[in-house]
Amino acid sequence: MEQTIQNNPVSMPRIGDPAPSFKAVTTQGDINFPADYSGKWVILFSHPADFTPVCTSEFMTFASMEKQFEEANCKLVGLSVDGLYSHIAWLRTIQEKIEFNGMKNVAVNFPLIEDTTMEVAKAYGMIQPGESTTKAVRAVFFIDPKGIIRAIIYYPLSLGRNFDELYRVIIALKAADEFSIATPADWNPGDDVIVPTAGSCGTAKDRMEGKEKDVKCYDWFFCTKKIDKDTVMKKVLNKK
Ligand code: BEZ
């Protein structure tokens, strides 16, 4: 969809859209996105600038959780409008000098895209002129194995992201797909899940009469069931 902000056409991909495709240079070599990630979940995220403190704390946190995301078949891909040599120098500095929240000597092994032309940032609506015309906001795109955008979160420049929440989003999206359920407010694996609302009077009646095994209905439209944490995590982490 094209939107106009300050008379500039700004592209804003939406949930359910195919992730805009691009080729880019990264700190881990060239990538062809999202084709190179077919069959995997991806978190594509932007940060405002290299050599800035909030971004540094975010990269250290994300890098330290990379294995956890990998186990969920989810790859991480970062982007800023800085150039490749800036990215390399910044990531080296992080590993050599910075300590944060008990983390140190942190190697960032996921790709960081150079986007000096802002081509990718603009295609993903990461440049939000009301916030900054020269830096990307902290955008997070959750892209599924078919290359479809499944969730989007935007944060302003001043606000560091909560990476446990980003992990929760991936697990919840995968759980929704695997179990055909929805997840209520503040859901975490092991909490009750929401059974999709009855789509017919017959189903509503059956549910209220307790005919659906293991489903608890408070009213016809609000029904939950238990899926224990082990069952959720085994399925979403694809463990036997
Ligand atoms: C930071 O990462 O610290 C930052 C970057 C841009 C604007 C404000 C803060």
Specify the overall morphology.
elongated
Spatial order of the strands in the main sheet? 9-6-5-10-11
Number of domains: 2
- Pairing-aware structural class of the strands and helices? alpha+beta
Uncertain segments are 1-8
CATH topology of the largest domain: Glutaredoxin
Q: What is the CATH architecture annotation of the largest domain?
A: 3-Layer(aba) Sandwich
Bound molecules: benzoic acid
Strand content: 25-35%
Structure description:
The chain is an alpha+beta fold and 240 residues long. The protein folds into two domains: 160 residues, Glutaredoxin (3-Layer(aba) Sandwich); 57 residues, Antioxidant, Horf6, Chain A, domain 2, CATH 3.30.1020. Helices cover 29% and strands 26% of the residues. The protein is built from seven helices and 14 strands. The strands form five sheets. It has a five-stranded mixed sheet. It has a three-stranded antiparallel sheet with strand order 12-14-13, with no helix packed on it. Strands 1-2 form a two-stranded antiparallel ribbon. Helix 5 crosses helix 7. It is elongated. The termini are far apart. The N terminus is likely disordered.
Describe the structure using short key phrases.
Antioxidant, Horf6, Chain A, domain 2, 240 residues, 2 domains, Glutaredoxin, three-stranded antiparallel sheet, 14 strands
Topology:
Blueprint: E1 2-5, E2 8-11, E3 22-26, E4 29-33, E5 41-46, H1 53-64, H2 66-71, E6 74-80, H3 84-97, E7 99-100, E8 103-104, E9 112-114, H4 119-123, E10 138-143, E11 149-155, H5 163-179, E12 193-194, H6 201-208, E13 215-219, E14 222-225, H7 229-236
Parallel strand pairs: 5-6, 6-9
Antiparallel strand pairs: 1-2, 3-4, 5-10, 7-8, 10-11, 12-14, 13-14
Helix pairs in contact: 5-7
The structure holds benzoic acid (BEZ).
